[in-house]
Amino acid sequence: MTRASVASEGPGPLAHRAIGVLGLITICVYGAWYYAFGVLLDPIIADTGWNEAVLASSFSLGILGIGVGSLFGGRLLDRLGTRWVFGLAATVGGGALLAATMATNLALFVLFSSVGMGVFGALGFYHVTMAAVVRLHPEESGRAIAALTIWGALASPIYLPLAAWLVERHGWRTTSQLLVLSAIIMLIVGALSLPRPEALPDLGPPPGLRAVAASAVSTAEARAFTVAVALIGVTISILLSYQVPIMSAAGLPLTTAATMAGVRGFSQLGGRLPLGFLLKRIEARTALFIALGAVTVGTLLLGLAGTVPVALLFAVVAGFGIGAYSPLQGIYAAELFDHRAIGATMGLYTSVSMLAGSLGPFAGGLIVELTGDRRWIAVAASVTAVASVLALATASRSAAQVSQAPLRS
């Protein structure tokens, strides 16, 4: 299939079905552990008596695993396609997480949960599913990413309230097993049903990993983007792992806090649905500033979210910011970098975000140990959010950089 035929066809029925499958994979893989962990944290402590700082560290290790593995997950997608990537995620990642749900020893729980979360994320997070839809539509990557992330915005509103409802009736172990199984099933469906590489547009051989890594620091704009992604990664990892515990500590019941976290996830649609309209009028970089600003305000509100009205405001503002940030990161990266290595490139930026973000939950656990007040964690998250805005502001795209931009396909 030629580039011209791809452009003239636009997204047809097959592509819409494939994007839907990738969207469901995104929902399940993010929801089953990465989002649900904040709901499960207190029930795990209550049931086992395990140390909170160590449990939070298991989440940090999982994020670290995602960070280390994402570049290779993206590279695997570029070379072998979705069948291998999603098959490995289901068997290795899903198997490890199921083992964690049955662990009666803290060390084994930390080992299996961190490995499982790392594999799930490295092989199933947005850097893989976004890259897959870009390869479906190399000429309309922004539109394809926006469509995918509308699906992805449903992960929190589905999995957070579901996890809270299940855990109060069946305990954290059965709840975790059901959530993980849902992701395994969807990954297997994706591995068996999505188009193979030979059925996709041929973009040519991808550049090597060294060239991909060098592109992230090759211009002032790319360097600023890389630093901003790292800093906001810390903020988002803190928010996702501690939003429910922080609201609970501020005075909300667990179910209410989980519901507000679900509303925050649902509010991500508010940051994604208008993107097509906005990006016709402003640059992706400008929209990215707006998204990061909203995340900053949301983290400040989280520390005050002890009542339903404030928690609801946090949910709407932070949801808008994170909802817009996720696709904008991919859209902006697709503008800056070569589509032939889009999987590896997006994997690299997931690595940057997750490696930096792995410090967040660990720092949150230490803050609780030192202060006894989880609300200080929200303050720490707001500091790194402000820093991300300042980092992105340090460089802008020049006319020369636009004219020398890398090939997109």
In short:
The protein has 409 residues and is mainly α. It has 20 helices and no strands.
Termini separation: 13 Å
The percent of residues in helical segments reads over 70%
Low-confidence stretches: 1-14, 398-409
Largest sheet: none
Query: How many beta strands in the DSSP annotation?
Result: 0
What does the average pLDDT come to?
81
Give the CA-based shape.
globular
The CATH architecture can be given as Up-down Bundle
Could you name the CATH class?
Mainly Alpha
Strand content: under 5%
Topology at a glance:
Blueprint: H1 3-9, H2 13-35, H3 37-48, H4 52-80, H5 82-102, H6 106-124, H7 126-136, H8 141-152, H9 155-193, H10 209-215, H11 220-249, H12 254-266, H13 268-272, H14 275-279, H15 284-302, H16 308-336, H17 342-357, H18 359-371, H19 375-392, H20 399-403
Helix pairs in contact: 2-6, 2-7, 2-8, 2-9, 3-4, 3-9, 3-11, 4-5, 4-6, 4-7, 4-17, 4-18, 5-6, 5-9, 7-8, 7-16, 7-17, 8-16, 9-12, 11-12, 11-15, 11-16, 11-17, 11-18, 11-19, 12-16, 15-16, 15-19, 18-19
List keywords for this structure.
disordered N terminus; Growth Hormone, Chain: A; disordered C terminus; 409 residues; 20 helices; single chain; mainly alpha
Kindly describe this structure.
It is a single chain. By secondary structure, the chain is mostly helical. The protein has one domain: Growth Hormone, Chain: A (Up-down Bundle). The protein contains 20 helices and no strands. It has helices at residues 3-9, 13-35, 37-48, 52-80, 82-102, 106-124, 126-136, 141-152, 155-193, 209-215, 220-249, 254-266, 268-272, 275-279, 284-302, 308-336, 342-357, 359-371, 375-392, 399-403. Mean pLDDT is 81; it is low at 1-14 and 398-409.
